[in-house]
Amino acid sequence: MKISLPKNSRLQSEAFTFGVATASFQIEGGVDSRQTCIWDTFCATPDKIRDASNGDIACNHLNLWQEDIALITSLGVDAYRFSIAWGRVLNQDGSINQQGVDFYIGILDELKRRNIKAFVTLYHWDLPQHIEDQGGWLNRDTAYLFKDYADKISQAFGDRVYSYATLNEPFCSSYLGYEAGIHAPGLMKKAYGRQSAHHLLLAHGLAMQVLQKNSPNSMNGIVLNFTPCYALTQSAADIQAAKQADDYFNQWYIKPIFDAAYPDLLAALAPEDRPEIHDGDLELISQPIDFLGVNFYTRAVYQADAEQGFVQVDLPGVPKTDIGWEIHPQAFTDLLVSLNQTYDLPPIFITENGAAMDDKCIDGRVDDFDRLSYYQHHLTAVDNAIVQGVNIQGYFAWSLMDNFEWAEGYLKRFGIVYVDYASQTRTIKASGQAYSDLIRSRAHFTNNNNK
Ligand code: FCB
To answer: What is the rounded average pLDDT for all residues in the chain?
Structure first.
């Protein structure tokens, strides 16, 4: 089975970047050679991770990174998106951990040698525990510690990085981590969710300043996730419910960046739930970025609720992935078109998109045709958004390989490469082969296959 796109699609052009993505905690392992982070602590807390697993070994990428980069190269991708573990590159006193920095420099140099662009994310959720012990993202000082980390690391990496993203999905760090309690550090209070979101965005703004200074030739920006919100019925109440949910879960993180303001919903929050915002914060948060990273997996449907304003509805009978997320590619196109209409956007990169499926590796083959079809439909959705005028310059499959899926542990597989955790064997799935074939089928690829 193949993934096919229209011949004249922008996705077929040389200017379009195809990549694969991972994140430090989800693949690296090597727990002993870095500081303890909030996810280590969360994993050690009973009943937080569905299979009671942790990131101590994960995909053992710390030791297998050379093989993994060879694998990435074999797929023919243009770019690799990965994240830096803050607690691997800095010591507790903020000084550089040279061994950790050298690990990433090794990766960056190897990528350069193989002509693969490095898309580096500075924060994909693995906050050092000693910073959490001082309040984590509830403490305004953490934003300044992040700025210092961004400063030191961007200096250490020199000109090796094609693109820096400050944060991955501040929604997940703040809402899931501090408000809903299902991600590390597992706190549960509305006020915490809102305050941590503000400090994360502030951290983004502060880090952008140092990235633009230290690495002016990189594309510097942020990665946000969106789960578009749809009304269950066309009643005014449900439409209003979906709008409120959208403001709370999606616009909350993008509007400050482009409009220097939070959604109006801020004023409707109880005074004790409103974040403390200092003069000048929104100016810092809203400085220009070179690209916006968009992560998309699914949509959500809402209805009005007398008590809470809005509640999510689980639609019966709709197609879902193995993690229970509805498959709805049209929502992807609609999202991209609507973001483009609402904000004055820089170029967009789709920094994550993919599906969890219940894969089985039989005789060295993984015939994940359901995932392949997900990619077919979602790449088409991206193409449709481009046709409607959205400036999308790249697409990254989540994920390069199966890995530690946060609260789901190792139970959910998102890779286009299968990982047998016991033997640490990697097997390219049918979806990975189709993705690779699509990339290699581009007309210009023959000029560019000296990798
Ligand atoms: C995103 C995360 C990524 C991965 C996917 C499935 O929210 O950024 O690490 O877990 O979901």
So the answer is: 97
